[in-house]
Write a structure and sequence with these properties.
Elements lengths: L22 H10 L14 E2 L11 H8 L9 H14 L3 E5 L2 H12 L5 E4 L4 H9 L3 E4 L20 H11 L7 E4 L12 H14 L3 E4 L3 H11 L8 H9 L4 E5 L10 E5 L2 H14 L10 H13 L3 H20 L12 E5 H4 L9 H13 L1 E2 L1 E3 L1 H4 L7 E5 L7 H16 L7 E5 L10 E4 L8
This protein binds pyridoxal-5'-phosphate.
The site of pyridoxal-5'-phosphate (PLP) has 14 residues, from α4 and α5.
Length: 457
C-alpha cells in the first residue's frame, strides 16, 4: 500500500508535557513579556516554533551513544567516531569540532578574510554575515532573482546567481575574494534548496579562478532530499550519495550540528587545506578547546556522530519535508499568504499581505506573531521591520519546525490556529516600540499595541 498519511517514523519513549493556558492567561503573559515572544517563559508556550536550532529530539541510538562518551581531554575515541561519521558524508580531510556553527564561522573567516576582501554567498545567515564583517571583509548576497519573490513557485529558490558571481570576480579580481560560500538550504531565504546543477556551476567558476568553495551545510540533509524529489537524475540516489556528491564540489564547510546534526549543541569546520587547518586548530585552542573536542563534551561528539547519519534516513526526510509542506499547503489553500513553496525546516507567513491594514512601521510581523500566541499558545518569530529596521524588505513570520518533536496532530492544531487568526485578521492591531536596545533590538525590545489608527479597534 502507498500510504497517504504523513507518518512519523518513530515511536515515543519519553514524553515532555506541554501546558495549556487560557486566552486570558496568555493576554497577561504577553503583556508581562512586553509583546516580545523572546521574553516569554518557554513553559507558557504550547507549541514552540521559535527555531529549529538545537530544539530537536534525540533518538534512542543517540542517547545510547551519549553513554559511550569518552571525556578524555586529548585523543578521545569519541572524536574518532565523530570524525569518521563526518568524513563518511562530507569527505573533507580535516574535521575540526566547535561548540556551534558560528564558532566554525569565526575561525574560518578569521583565518581566511581581511579588510577589503569580499565573500559571496547565495544568502549569508545573520551570524555568517556578522562574522565576515567582523574581519573587515564585505559579505555579498548573490541569490537568483526567483529567490526574492515570496509568492513565486520554483524548485530551487536557494540557487546562487552564477553570472553575478562571475561578474563580481571579473570586477574585483580573484585576490579580493578569499572564498565563496553556498548555504544549503538557504535559511534566510525561507529554507529553500540549492540544486546540484547550481552547486556544480558555482564550483566550476570557483575552480576556474582558483577560489575555494565552502558550504554552510546546516541543513544539508534536507537539501539532499529536495534534490532527490525535484532534480532530474536524482530520484534513485540516496540522500547520503547526493550529499557526498555535493560536498565533493567544494573545499570545506561550516556546520551547525543543532540542525541536521540532530543534536542539541555542536558544530564543526572542515577543510582539505593542510595549512589552513593548522591555523584553524591554533585558533580553536585559543577560544574553543583542544582539536579533539573543540568546546564539546565527548558525549556531544557521540550524539552528533549518530545524528548526522539519522538525518539522512529516507523515512525521516520523507516525513520531515512532507510534514512542513502539509502545514504550508493547508494554510495556503485557505488563502493565507506564505513564502512559496514551503521550505524544509520552516513555513514563512507574509505578514504584510496577511495584515495589509498594518503599515510596516507598526510591525505587522510582530502583531501577527503575538496574535498566534494569543489564539493558540504558538510561539513564532518575526523576521521583518523589528529585526532589520529600515533594511527590512519583507515582514515575515517564521514557523520553524523542531526535528522529531511535534506530531501530525500538533501540525493539524497549528493549521487550525493559523486559520482562526486568518479569519479575524481585520481585528488585529499594529504595534509600537516602547524600548529598544542599540543593536539586535528584536531580542529585547518592548512593544505595545497601538491604541488608534490601524485596524477597526
Ligand atoms: C544557515 C545557518 N548558518 C549558520 C548558523 C549558525 O549556527 P549556530 O546557531 O549553531 O551558531 C545558522 C543557525 O541558525 C544557520 O541557519
Amino acid at each position: 500500500m502507498n500510504a497517504k498519511t504523513i507518518f512519523e517514523p518513530f515511536r515515543i519513549k519519553s514524553v515532555e508535557p506541554i501546558r495549556w493556558t487560557t486566552r486570558a492567561e496568555r493576554e497577561e503573559l504577553l503583556k508581562a513579556a512586553h509583546y516580545n515572544l523572546f521574553l516569554l517563559p518557554a513553559d507558557d508556550v504550547l507549541i514552540d516554533l521559535l527555531t529549529d536550532s538545537g530544539t530537536g529530539a534525540m533518538s534512542t541510538h543517540q542517547w545510547a551513544a551519549v553513554m559511550e562518551g569518552d571525556e578524555s581531554y586529548a585523543g578521545s575515541r569519541s572524536f574518532d567516531r565523530f570524525k569518521t561519521s563526518v568524513q563518511s558524508i562530507f569527505g573533507y580531510k580535516h574535521v575540526i569540532p566547535t561548540h556551534q556553527g558560528r564558532a566554525a564561522e569565526r575561525i574560518l573567516f578569521g583565518v581566511m578574510c581581511k579588510k577589503g576582501d569580499v565573500v559571496p554567498n547565495n544568502t549569508h545567515f545573520d551570524t555568517t554575515r556578522a562574522n565576515v564583517e567582523f574581519t573587515g571583509a564585505e559579505a555579498v548576497d548573490l541569490l537568483r532573482p526567483e529567490g526574492r519573490q515570496p509568492a513565486l513557485e520554483h524548485p530551487f529558490k536557494g540557487n546562487m546567481d552564477v553570472a553575478a558571481l562571475e561578474n563580481l570576480i571579473q570586477r574585483l579580481g580573484r585576490e579580493r575574494i578569499p572564498l565563496v560560500m553556498l548555504t544549503v538550504t538557504n535559511n534566510s531565504g525561507g529554507g529553500q534548496p540549492v540544486s546540484m546543477e547550481n552547486a556544480r556551476q558555482v564550483s566550476v567558476v570557483c575552480r576556474r579562478h582558483g577560489i575555494p568553495l565552502y558550504f554552510d551545510a546546516c541543513r544539508f540533509a534536507e537539501n539532499a532530499w529536495f534534490i532527490k524529489l525535484r532534480e532530474p537524475g536524482y530520484a534513485d540516489r540516496s540522500p547520503k550519495e547526493i550529499a557526498q556528491e555535493m560536498f565533493a564540489l567544494g573545499d570545506g564547510c561550516t556546520m551547525s550540528a543543532k540542525k541536521d546534526g540532530m543534536a542539541n549543541i555542536g558544530g564543526f569546520l572542515c577543510t582539505n587545506d593542510d595549512r589552513l587547518a593548522q591555523q584553524e586548530k591554533d585558533l580553536l585552542i585559543l577560544t574553543e578547546g583542544y582539536p579533539t573536542y573543540g568546546g564539546l563534551a565527548g558525549r556531544d561528539l557521540e550524539a552528533i556522530a549518530v545524528g548526522l547519519q539519522e538525518a539522512l534516513a529516507p523515512d525521516y526526510l520523507r516525513y520531515r519535508i512532507a510534514s512542513t509542506a502539509y502545514l504550508g499547503n493547508h494554510i495556503a489553500a485557505a488563502g493565507v499568504p506564505i513564502v512559496q513553496p514551503p521550505g524544509g525546516h520552516a513555513v514563512y507567513l507574509d505578514a504584510r499581505a496577511f495584515l495589509p491594514h498594518i503599515p510596516p512601521a507598526q510591525f505587522p510581523g510582530v502583531a501577527l506573531a503575538c496574535e498566534l500566541y494569543l489564539e493558540g499558545g504558538v510561539r513564532s518569530v518575526e523576521i521583518g521591520t523589528l529585526m532589520f529596521a529600515a533594511a527590512a524588505q519583507m515582514d515575515l513570520v517564521r514557523l520553524a519546525i523542531p526535528r522529531r518533536v511535534y506530531t501530525q496532530s500538533h501540525v493539524d492544531y497549528l493549521v487550525e490556529v493559523i486559520l482562526e487568526v486568518w479569519n479575524h485578521r481585520d481585528r488585529i492591531r499594529g504595534m509600537k516600540l516602547t524600548y529598544e536596545a542599540p543593536f539586535l533590538r528584536h531580542f529585547t525590545a518592548h512593544l505595545e499595541p497601538v491604541s488608534d489608527g490601524a485596524g477597526p479597534h
